[in-house]
Design goal:
The complex is a heteropentamer of chains A (about 350), B (about 170), C (about 475), D (about 100) and E (about 625).
Chain A (H helix, E strand, L loop, with lengths): L4 H33 L15 H11 L10 H18 L17 H23 L2 H32 L4 H7 L8 H4 L1 H14 L11 H4 L9 H26 L8 H4 L5 H27 L7 H33 L1
Chain D lengths: L4 H21 L3 H26 L3 H31 L13
Chain E lengths: L5 H23 L7 H26 L6 E11 L2 E9 L1 H24 L6 H20 L3 H19 L6 H32 L4 H6 L6 H18 L8 H4 L5 H10 L4 H8 L1 H5 L2 H22 L5 H21 L3 H28 L17 H15 L5 H16 L2 H26 L17 H16 L14 H6 L12 H27 L2 H10 L1 H8 L4 H47 L7 H21 L1
Antiparallel strand pairs in E: 1-2
Helix pairs in contact in E: 1-2, 1-4, 2-3, 2-4, 3-4, 3-10, 3-15, 3-19, 4-5, 5-6, 5-10, 6-8, 8-11, 8-13, 10-15, 11-15, 13-14, 13-18, 14-15, 14-17, 14-18, 15-16, 15-17, 15-19, 16-18, 16-19, 17-18, 17-21, 18-21
Classes of the chains: A mainly alpha (about 350), B mainly alpha (about 170), C mainly alpha (about 475), D mainly alpha (about 100), E mainly alpha (about 625).
Chain lengths: ~350, ~170, ~475, ~100, ~625
């Protein structure tokens, strides 16, 4: 399905808009999940089952007084949350949510994703530094160290997929997984999946790897000095990361929008219907990961910093390397044999 | 046309950010300007159809190297430096003069012969798909496999060296 | 484009010496990381170099170039590689004691050294400016680390920082030069650049590229005015590191410079010669004169290294095979000599106190063997007959004279005479009885002493019977 | 873009000179170091332009290698700066001059 | 004649020199070890003993006419001048070689004991071995150039050994004096050599001796004269003798070996070697004889009043050398060599004996402070006594035979004045020698016996004394006078190598002269004994009444002072004025300023190395700009 420029624009707006919505409700979702796990009720006052809670929160944050520390570096202090949000958002541009429904497909899509993720760290780092507070600074340093460390393992995990797919285009990665669930990358690359998944926690600053903002040690970490709307932006960026990470996981390992055996039972169906089903499928899979993220957050305790680094460098990185080597070796043998 | 304008704007931004790097008061300003500069360069790479390099530029320079710089600047909590024109003394004037001379000499060779009319190299075959991942990958693992593999020695020794030097405890 | 595995295997075999050193470097790194048997490390390193040396010398490679023209495995690489490996082997014999004295990790040092040697071997076997650049960087980065190995010592830190900052700066110029050459000729392959030069007259871009590349090389060989780092780094770095980076680096860089010159200019180029001549003259004058005012022995050796860069550059003037052979001979002897001098100084220093002319007093009596070896080395550096330094200097001067650079030869002789002023001071201090009888220094171990004596023997043999080495160099060319 | 190659190479020369100027005038070791990175990048720019000009991959290959080497240099360089900072609480190159004369 | 092993003769002393030198370097660097001393000493001695044995075998296996030349290699070759390292082995050189190595060995052994406590022990033996090497080169040389090499070599060793105890100023002065005096002689020697080469075109002895006819009269005279001046330098004859007494500043074994037995006789040897050349010109021969005779008398008179035990012996040596030249001058070259031979024994014995005395007296050399040592040093005394008699020419001792033959030949040649001088000198010789012995060994003890406890030297030192004393008694029988045996061995042995102008006189004359000689010797000895043992007051009275003469002689005829005033002082005045005016005013500032400029420049230039990285990179950029400019605009 080819979309014209106008269609493209509409699609872009649609995708980012719904992403916005999803992020807002991810917060609500998180609170609900947390409540369930702790045997509470969770937000249920605003709207039906508290469904309007996110909007209330946003409204509240917008109305709060904006405080900027006097010693802060103003410009960067202002820019930092923006960088965070934007970097989180533009990753999504590469992700196809249904066949043909994507903002862009470039032949180095995977690299693009890696690049954007790696730049994402600037938001956090600069926020911490510009606040000119030691808690913030420590938080941002932890963030930069942690992100650089886990990016490597993440990249290595992706290399496995690229090797299998023989392409860096995200669309072709999804295509190559077909509608057969047994050909999805989670089956082909279980170790890679594990690594990527764990690294996602670190990249998204989620528990058990939320050291950059660990309340008990650093008050609020890099966003200690932020308030009002800017704080909301960080908050927003964090949940965007969550959604984006889940989407990427879905795309790379869970066949993306692919509906199991759709070629069998959906053969010849209306393509708009198929697209709709695919979008639903994608959202479903994504929500699964979102739920997993939350589950983990409310279950596991926080890592110690040195354990975090050890895990990254001593286990994930070698594991990733082994994964790449095994995958490449397997491909070589497969090539020669068949 | 649009490309031309885009190019000149990018070039301008690159120059301005470059100037900021060397005049910025705080190391962080310099670092951020440098990141901006790298983005500009990456953009020019894209214009030159070197997509792979453009993205690598972002990943390696902006995503890794500069983050490391920032990390160290924060770790050491470096104080503000003097800017170029604050306390502008003879030494700095001399430095500007010398750099100007250097640039002048490069400009002089431009006046001698233009780059784009520089004679074609021996391997002048037309090759439109130059900057793609595929072609880079192909050459990297055929003609350039030896330097490519040997680059790993540089990285390895850098890792060892950095660890040895920056390690705090002696055991 | 399918990869020809047979070709790959053949090419890999032809760079086997490099890979062997690399492999030993990796093994050393692993060993030091797992902290097993640190006493084994020098043995592993030494045997790695030895095997590599044997492979280099006795295994004939199937073709003169490998990896699609990236690598040149001809006799030049053999000569350059062998002298580097010989030096490395000697250094390994000596280093264990010195490292222990300085309280430096064993393993990492050896690993770094092995990586640096990998880079050097890459340099001398390069046939492409890319390989030259990568080789230089592979050599330099471990060097930076080696200079800063004494983490607690501010001088070591400082020397590492200076070396690093200026080194990275110089690498920028080297790279810019390579880029301009590439821009002008469309290739970085030395052979193809030479083809290009043979078919057309190069423009200004090319020449500026050559000039900028040369500045990068001049930095590495510490020629004036790119030399400022050398005395500081040699003084500040742990002596065990200075002993290697002052010698190995110089050997490799000079051999590479000769290689580039040889490949690019089969027809001697006046522009090249002019630049080299001016820099050589400046180096000889400034290096020797400044050394006169020094008291720290390592610093004297640093300036001596600057001065010798000038002498060695003289050999590049003629751009003939004779000149390159003279250069190879001299740089080999110089390397071994300076290595011996640094190593002895390393033994004579105690508790990190700098070795000055004052503290050297009387050590010739209390540390006889070391004193004799230092004396031999210094005499060789002076260029006085029974030592190899004389033969080297003679060959270089002869070559420069024959290529019509009489003025430079005279300058060389005059500055050599000036140099006696400070070299002699070292010997005099060695054999002067000190006012206080307290002598500070440790004796070298037997193993290290063997290495030092071996170096002294090489210096003596190369002076007494030069054909041993000249024959080797000319036969392998 | 080929019509801009002259301009790109000129841009690269300008950026290179800026890097040089930075190295000459800055006092902070890390800023100096960043200026060096600027120099290396400008050379990369020129290399890519030349590569496009000659339709030859070598330039881009070299750029990849340079990036790797730059990364390695950064690792070692920053380690050196850290170690010197630990001992002397400064990264100002004008204060670090124990070794002289 | 089997000369296969001859190479060892030359090589071993050299090897000993090198080996001991190498061992000594250890000392120099501080590996001091007393235990290495015997090794050094015996190694050096062995390096002389083996050549002696080899020479002995060659000697026993050869006949007088045998002569061979071994060429080792071409030393250098300039146009038609070819100089080989070649050695000539004939009756003369073998005899001399035996003497040098034999006595040399004894003195080496003696030195092990004598130098035992010296810190320059190894250095001493290194020099000694080098000396023997040089001396053997001199003796066996086949050509004048190689001889000159040895000649200079022994001169060098002499210098080194005289100045052995270099820490005292007068020792250095003596060494320098010896060296300079020798250099004057050497210069003349060189001129002589050039003159010969100009005529003969070769410098090998065979060529010279067989081509004497090529010379025209004056060239021959001048060549011979210059060579003879060279000989006077080396052999301490008038006018170049003054260095020898001063040379006694060296260790006593050195005086024995170099300044009595071997080196100083080199001049005589050289004259004998070139005897065909010398004897071809009568005026030349006359000059040689006159110089010899005058020196003999001159030195004998000085010897009469010297108080230093070694100085007396030194003047005696000068005097005896005069005898040798006298013999050569009258054409009795074999007899000159004979006297060299006998003299070597008794003079070496005397020196070693005096060494033993000095050793015993703890470095006391003044005989006025000795006396009565007979009972303390019995062995030294007896050997010294024998050697004194031999030197004085007491009948049937070695000195008697050789000296008497010289007197006879002088008489027979018709130079009665010379004969008169010589026989008077013989009387003086007997007197001053007995004076020496008496003052040393007889009479009262004139030293403080509480402070000094003389003791006999160890066997290592006395054994050589005995051997030498035996030689002093016996070797004379090798050359019995014509009246006793018509063919004496030494003349027969040497005749193939050396010219011998036979003297003609009746048997009666010969007997009479012999009786006169013996009588004078005995009379002299008696007078010396009588005067200096018991009648010291008589001596003092005599001195007082002839005080003018006494002072003249006591001050050695003011020769040193004259030389000082005539040559040294003007010379040093010129030097000083040149130094003050030319050098200090002009040259020194020139050089000094250059050096100062360089080191001042160094002090300036070092400051561009500011330690600041920015400075360094600034210079870097200057370099870059410079390089680009160079490359663009050349």
């Amino acid at each position: 399905m080819k979309l014209e420029l106008f269609g493209h624009l509409v699609l872009t707006v649609c995708i980012f808009g719904s992403l916005f919505l999803f992020v807002a409700y991810a917060v609500y979702f998180e609170r609900k999940v947390a409540a369930k796990m702790q045997n509470r009720v969770g937000p249920d006052r605003v709207g039906w089952y508290g469904l309007l809670q996110p909007f209330a929160d946003i409204l509240k944050l917008l109305l709060k007084e904006e405080i900027i520390a006097t010693q802060a570096t103003k410009l960067i202090h202002t820019l930092a949350p923006g960088i965070s949000v934007i970097m989180a958002f533009i990753t999504f541009a590469m992700i196809p949510i249904a066949q043909g429904f994507y903002i862009a497909d470039i032949n180095i899509g995977m690299l693009y994703m890696m690049a954007v993720t790696s730049i994402g760290v600037y938001g956090v780092t600069l926020a911490g530094w510009s606040s000119n507070s030691k808690y913030s600074l420590l938080g941002s340093m932890r963030a930069s160290a942690q992100m650089i460390s886990y990016e490597l393992s993440m990249g290595l995990a992706v290399v496995g997929i690229i090797l299998i797919t023989q392409s860096m285009s995200v669309v072709s990665i999804v295509d190559s997984q077909t509608d057969n669930p047994f050909l999805w990358n989670i089956i082909k690359q279980p170790i890679g999946f594990l690594i990527f998944w764990i690294a996602s926690f670190a990249e998204a600053n989620r528990l058990p790897f939320d050291l950059p903002e660990s309340e008990q040690e650093l008050v609020g970490g890099f966003h200690t000095e932020y308030s009002s709307m800017r704080f909301a932006l960080f908050f927003f960026a964090e949940y965007t990361h969550l959604i984006v990470a889940s989407s990427i996981l879905t795309t790379l390992y869970l066949g993306g929008y692919q509906i199991p055996y759709s070629s069998v039972w959906l053969a010849g169906a209306n393509e708009w219907l198929v697209a709709g089903l695919q979008i639903l499928m994608f959202i479903l899979k994504m929500c699964l990961f979102v739920f997993l993220f939350m589950w983990v957050r409310w279950t596991l305790p926080r890592f110690k910093y040195n354990h975090l680094m050890e895990l990254g460098w001593k286990y994930l990185l070698p594991l990733g390397l082994i994964n790449v080597v095994v995958t490449a070796g397997w491909l070589l043998i497969y090539d020669k044999l068949f | 046309m649009i490309v031309d304008i885009l190019f000149y704007i990018t070039a301008l931004v690159a120059i301005i950010s470059g100037l900021l790097v060397i005049t910025g008061k705080s190391p962080v300003t310099s670092a951020l300007s440098l990141v901006l500069n790298f983005f500009c360069i990456a953009f020019i790479y894209l214009m030159l159809e070197a997509q792979f390099l453009a993205i690598i530029q972002v990943i390696v320079y902006a995503g890794a190297i500069m983050v490391l710089f920032l990390f160290v600047i924060m770790l050491l909590n470096l104080q503000d430096d003097m800017t170029l024109f604050e306390r502008f003394d003879l030494k700095k004037g001399f430095a500007v003069l010398l750099t100007g001379l250097f640039l002048l000499e490069i400009a002089y060779i431009f006046s001698l012969d233009s780059v784009s009319v520089a004679p074609k190299g021996v391997t002048g075959a037309s090759f439109p798909e130059l900057g793609t991942v595929e072609s880079i990958g192909k050459y990297l693992f055929s003609d350039f496999v030896y330097p490519f593999e040997m680059i790993s020695v540089v990285l390895l020794s850098a890792v060892v060296g950095a660890v040895v030097i920056a390690k705090k405890k002696v055991d | 484009m399918p990869i020809d595995l047979n070709l790959l295997l053949r090419d890999t075999l032809s760079v086997a010496p490099v890979l062997i050193v690399l492999l030993s470097g990796i093994v050393l790194m692993m060993m030091s990381a797992s902290k097993v048997q640190s006493k084994l490390l020098p043995w592993v390193a030494g045997s790695g170099y030895l095997i590599s040396f044997l492979t280099l010398t006795f295994v004939t490679v199937p073709s003169a170039s490998a990896f699609s023209g990236m690598v040149n495995t001809g006799s030049f690489a053999v000569v350059g590689g062998s002298m580097i490996l010989a030096l490395a082997f000697l250094h390994t014999m000596v280093s264990a004691n010195l490292l222990k004295k300085d309280g430096i990790y064993l393993g990492e040092f050896y690993a770094l050294q092995a990586f640096a040697i990998t880079g050097m071997l890459m340099m001398v076997s390069a046939n492409d400016l890319i390989m030259v650049f990568i080789g230089i960087e592979t050599m330099s980065i471990p060097f930076y680390a080696m200079a800063g190995l004494k983490r607690k010592d501010v001088r070591s830190n400082e020397s590492a920082m200076k070396y690093f900052l200026i080194g990275a700066f110089a690498a920028g110029f080297l790279l810019y030069g390579i880029a301009l050459i590439y821009g002008a000729t469309g290739t970085t392959n030395l052979t193809r650049i030479a083809d290009y030069l043979a078919s057309q007259t190069p423009g200004a871009f090319f020449w500026v590229g050559i000039g900028l590349m040369l500045t990068g090389f001049f930095f590495k060989v510490s020629a004036v005015p790119f030399h400022f780092w050398a005395p500081d780094v040699y003084q500040g770095a742990p002596t065990v590191s200075s002993a290697f980076l002052a010698t190995g680096g110089k050997m490799a860089t000079f051999m590479t410079l000769a290689l580039v010159s040889m490949k690019l200019f089969p027809v001697p180029s006046a522009k090249w010669a002019a630049v080299v001549a001016v820099v050589a003259a400046l180096s000889m004058i400034i290096g020797n004169v400044t050394a006169l005012a020094q008291t720290n022995v390592k610093r004297i050796l640093g300036y001596s290294s600057v001065a010798h860069a000038g002498y060695l550059l003289l050999a590049l003037l003629s751009q003939t095979t004779d000149g390159y052979q003279a250069l190879a001979y001299y740089v080999f002897v110089y390397g071994i000599t300076t290595f011996a001098a640094f190593a002895v100084v390393g033994y004579l220093e105690k508790d990190g106190n700098p070795v000055t002319l004052e503290s050297l007093k009387g050590l010739g009596f209390s540390h006889r063997t070391e004193g004799v070896i230092l004396t031999i080395a210094v005499i060789s550096l002076m260029g006085i007959p029974p030592m190899g330094g004389f033969v080297g200097k003679y060959l270089v001067f002869l070559n420069a004279y024959e290529s019509g650079h009489l003025g430079l030869v005279i300058l060389g002789v005059v500055t050599s005479m000036v140099s006696i002023g400070y070299y002699l001071r070292i010997i005099l201090s060695l054999y002067t009885r000190p006012e206080s009888t307290e002598v500070i220094a440790n004796p070298a171990g037997a193993f290290a002493l063997t290495g030092l004596i071996l170096a002294a023997v090489i210096i003596l043999v190369s002076g007494l019977y030069p054909p041993v080495f000249t024959g080797w160099i000319t036969s392998l060319w | 873009m080929n019509q801009h190659i002259d301009a790109i190479v000129a841009l690269s020369a300008i950026l290179f000179s800026m890097g040089v100027l930075g190295v000459l005038t800055r006092k902070n070791a890390i800023t100096i170091f960043m200026s060096v990175e600027l120099m290396l990048n400008s050379v990369n720019l020129a290399l890519v332009a030349f590569s496009r000009l000659h339709n030859d991959i070598t330039g881009q290959m070299l750029v990849i290698f340079v990036m790797a080497i730059a990364a390695a240099e950064v690792a070692v360089g920053l380690a050196i700066v850290i170690s010197i900072f630990r001992n002397r609480q400064t990264a100002d190159v004008t204060e670090i001059n124990l070794l002289r004369w | 004649m089997n000369i296969g092993l001859f190479g060892l003769v030359i090589a071993l002393p050299l090897a000993g020199f090198l080996l001991n030198g190498a061992l000594g370097l250890f000392n120099l660097l501080g590996w001091r070890s007393e235990s290495r001393k015997p090794v050094v000493g015996w190694l050096a001695s062995l390096a002389i003993l083996v050549p002696f044995v080899v020479l002995l075998f060659i000697f026993l296996g050869m006949s007088a006419e045998d002569k061979s030349i071994v060429t080792y290699y071409r030393w250098f070759s300039v146009e038609d001048l070819n100089i080989n390292i070649a050695y000539q082995i004939d009756s003369l050189s073998v005899l001399m070689g035996l003497m040098v190595t034999g006595i040399g060995f004894l003195i080496h052994v003696y030195s092990i004991g004598y130098m035992k406590h010296d810190e320059g022990f190894w250095r001493f033996f290194v020099y000694l071995n080098l000396f023997i090497f040089a001396m053997l080169n001199l003796i066996f040389a086949d050509n004048l150039v190689l001889l000159f090499l040895g000649w200079e070599g022994v001169g060098l060793c002499s210098y080194l050994l005289i100045g052995f105890w270099y820490k005292q100023a007068f020792v250095n002065d003596a060494a320098i004096k010896a060296f300079v005096m020798n250099r004057i002689g050497d210069f003349a020697f060189l001129i002589g050599m050039f003159l010969i080469f100009k005529t003969v075109g070769s410098l090998s002895f065979d060529a010279i001796n067989s081509n004497v006819g090529l010379f025209d009269e004056s060239t021959l005279f001048w060549a011979g004269l210059f060579l003879f001046i060279g000989a006077t330098g080396k052999s301490a004859q008038i006018p170049l003798y003054t260095w020898l007494p001063d040379a006694m500043a060296g260790p006593t074994p050195v005086s024995a070996l170099i300044h009595a037995a071997t080196m100083v006789t080199a001049g005589v040897y050289m004259v004998a070697r070139l005897s065909p050349l010398f004897s071809a010109n009568a005026e030349l021969m006359m000059i040689v004889a006159v110089i010899g005779g005058l020196t003999a008398l001159f030195a004998a008179t000085i010897g009469l009043f010297q108080n230093d035990i070694k100085k007396v012996l030194a003047y005696s040596t000068v005097s005896q050398l005069g005898y040798m030249f006298l013999a050569a001058g009258v054409g009795a070259f074999p007899i000159a060599i004979f006297h060299v031979f006998t003299h070597a024994f008794f003079k070496a014995c005397l020196f070693l004996g005096s060494g033993s005395v000095i050793h015993a007296m703890h470095d006391e050399q003044d005989i006025r402070n000795m006396g009565g040592l007979k009972k303390y040093l019995p062995q030294t005394y007896i050997t010294f006594f024998i050697a004194t008699f031999a030197l004085a020419g007491f009948p049937l001792t070695a000195g008697f035979f050789s000296k008497d033959e010289i007197l006879f030949r002088t008489f027979a040649s018709g130079n009665y004045i010379l004969w008169g001088l010589a026989i008077f000198s013989a009387l003086l010789t007997a007197i001053y020698m007995m004076r020496l012995t008496s003052l040393t060994f007889y009479g009262k003890e004139r030293f403080d016996s509480h402070k000094t406890h003389p003791h006999e030297s160890p066997a290592l030192m006395t054994l050589p004394l005995w051997i030498l004393a035996a030689g002093a008694l016996l070797v004379g029988f090798l050359g019995l006078p014509g009246v006793v045996a018509p063919t004496n061995w030494i003349t027969t042995w040497l005749e193939p190598s050396v010219i011998n102008v036979e003297g003609h006189a009746s048997h009666f004359t010969e007997w009479a002269l012999m009786a006169l000689g013996s009588g004078l010797a005995i009379a002299g000895l008696f007078a010396g004994w009588k005067l200096y043992t018991t009648n010291l007051e008589t001596v003092a009275r005599l001195k007082a009444s002839f005080s003018g003469l006494y002072n003249l002689i006591y001050n050695k005829y003011f020769v040193d002072e004259t030389y000082d005033n005539v040559i040294v002082k003007p010379y040093s005045w010129i030097s000083n004025s040149l130094m003050n005016n030319l050098e200090n005013m002009l040259l020194y500032p020139l050089y000094g300023w250059t050096a100062k400029a360089v080191s001042g420049g160094a002090e300036l230039i070092r400051f561009i190395q500011t330690g600041h990285t920015p400075t360094y990179v600034t210079f870097f950029i200057i370099g870059v700009v410079g390089v680009i400019s160079l490359i663009l605009f050349i």
